[in-house]
C-alpha cells in the first residue's frame, strides 16, 4: 500500500457534502473556517475566492478547482470584497435555481470534507491555505468535476452514491496534487517520491507494530546501513529511528482519539510490547501520558454546507 493510501485509510475520510449553486451578481458566500477541507469548482461564469485577513483574492474561471483548508473563514463571490452571507442565507437570498442558461449566471460547486483524527488533520495541514488547480492544467480532476456537475443537475437513480464516490475521487486527486507542490507537505511526501527510500517508508508506515531496525530497512533499500542513514537524513531531515518513533506516536494519538481500545492494545499496534515502555515514550513525546491525552482529545465538528 502506498503511503498516501495508508494515510487516507487511517484518516477515515467522512462527512463529505456537496452542493451545486447558481447565482446572478451581486452575490457572495461566506464559509466557516471550521470546515476542515472545502472544495470549490467553477462550472460557468467567474468568481473570486479569498481568505478572511488573507492575501489577494484568487479568480476562479470555468474548470478551475480550489481546495481550502480549515482555519480562517473564506469567501466566494462575484467580485472581491463583495458582501458575503452564510450558506443558509445565501440559499434564500442569492440562489437562482434554473437560471444556468442565463449568460450572467455563475454556476459553481462547493464541497465540505472531514477527516477523522490527527492523521487526517496532518493530511489537510500539509496543503497550502488555498490550492488552485487551473483548468488549463492537464489534471484528471477536471473530468471528475464535470461528472459531479452533471449528477448534481439531475435526479437519476443512485445519485447520492455516485456523488459520494466522485467526491472521494476528487478529494484524493486534489490532495495528491496539493501535497506534491506544497512547501508545507509532510516529510513522507518527499520520501515517497524518492526511489531509494520509498520501499522502506512504505514498510515503516504500513506496519507500525513491527520492530524495525536500520539494518533491515537498509537491506530493503539495497543500501549499506551508513548510506541509508545518510540518505534518509538528507531527504527527510531526521534519522530513521526518530522518524519511525514520530510516526508511531502519530498513529498512537490517532488510535487514542478515534478508537475505544485498551492502552495495551494501542501500545502493541505501534510496536511496544510493554505498556510501561509505551507510556514512557508517549509522555516523552507529548508531555503527558496517553490516558490523559485520550481524555482531553476532541475531534473536529461535522462538515456542513447548508445551501
Automatic annotation (TrEMBL):
Q: What domain of life does the UniProt record list for this protein's source?
A: Bacteria
InterPro entries named in the record: AraC_lig, AraC_XylS_family_regulators, Homeodomain-like_sf, HTH_AraC, HTH_AraC-typ_CS
Which keywords label this protein? DNA-binding, Transcription, Transcription regulation
Region Disordered: list its residue ranges.
286-307
For whether the record's keyword set contains DNA-binding, the answer is yes
Q: Can the keyword Transcription be found in this entry's annotation?
A: yes
Residue span(s) of domain HTH araC/xylS-type: 198-296
- Name the Gene Ontology molecular function terms of this record: DNA-binding transcription factor activity; sequence-specific DNA binding
Could you tell me which SUPFAM superfamilies the record lists for this protein? Homeodomain-like (SSF46689)
Q: Which Gene3D superfamilies match?
A: Homeodomain-like
Q: Name one Pfam family in it.
A: HTH_18
Q: Supply the name of the protein.
A: Transcriptional regulator, AraC family
Amino acid at each position: 500500500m502506498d503511503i498516501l493510501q495508508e494515510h487516507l485509510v487511517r484518516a477515515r475520510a467522512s462527512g463529505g457534502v456537496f452542493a451545486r449553486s447558481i447565482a446572478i451578481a451581486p452575490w457572495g458566500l461566506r464559509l466557516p473556517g471550521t470546515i476542515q477541507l472545502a472544495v470549490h469548482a467553477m462550472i460557468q461564469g467567474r468568481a473570486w475566492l479569498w481568505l478572511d485577513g488573507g492575501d489577494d483574492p484568487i479568480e476562479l474561471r470555468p474548470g478551475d478547482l480550489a481546495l481550502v483548508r480549515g482555519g480562517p473563514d473564506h469567501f466566494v463571490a462575484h467580485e472581491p470584497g463583495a458582501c458575503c452571507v452564510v450558506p443558509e442565507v445565501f440559499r434564500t437570498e442569492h440562489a437562482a435555481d434554473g437560471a444556468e442558461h442565463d449568460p450572467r449566471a455563475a454556476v459553481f460547486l462547493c464541497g465540505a470534507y472531514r477527516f477523522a483524527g490527527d492523521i487526517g488533520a496532518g493530511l489537510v495541514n500539509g496543503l497550502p491555505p488555498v490550492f488552485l488547480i487551473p483548468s488549463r492544467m492537464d489534471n484528471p480532476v477536471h473530468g471528475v468535476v464535470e461528472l459531479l456537475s452533471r449528477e448534481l443537475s439531475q435526479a437519476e437513480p443512485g445519485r447520492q452514491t455516485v456523488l459520494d464516490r466522485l467526491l472521494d475521487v476528487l478529494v484524493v486527486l486534489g490532495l495528491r496534487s496539493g501535497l506534491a507542490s506544497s512547501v508545507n507537505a509532510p516529510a513522507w511526501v518527499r520520501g515517497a517520491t524518492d526511489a531509494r527510500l520509498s520501499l522502506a517508508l512504505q514498510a515503516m508506515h504500513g506496519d507500525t507494530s513491527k520492530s524495525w531496525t536500520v539494518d533491515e530497512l537498509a537491506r530493503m533499500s539495497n543500501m549499506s546501513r551508513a548510506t541509508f542513514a545518510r540518505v534518509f537524513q538528507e531527504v527527510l531531515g531526521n534519522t530513521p529511528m526518530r522518524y519511525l518513533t514520530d510516526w508511531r506516536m502519530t498513529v498512537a494519538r490517532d488510535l487514542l482519539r478515534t478508537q475505544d481500545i485498551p492502552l495495551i492494545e494501542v501500545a502493541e499496534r505501534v510496536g511496544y510490547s510493554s505498556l510501561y515502555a509505551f507510556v514512557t515514550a508517549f509522555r516523552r513525546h507529548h508531555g503527558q501520558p496517553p490516558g490523559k491525552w485520550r481524555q482531553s482529545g476532541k475531534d473536529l465538528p461535522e462538515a456542513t454546507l447548508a445551501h
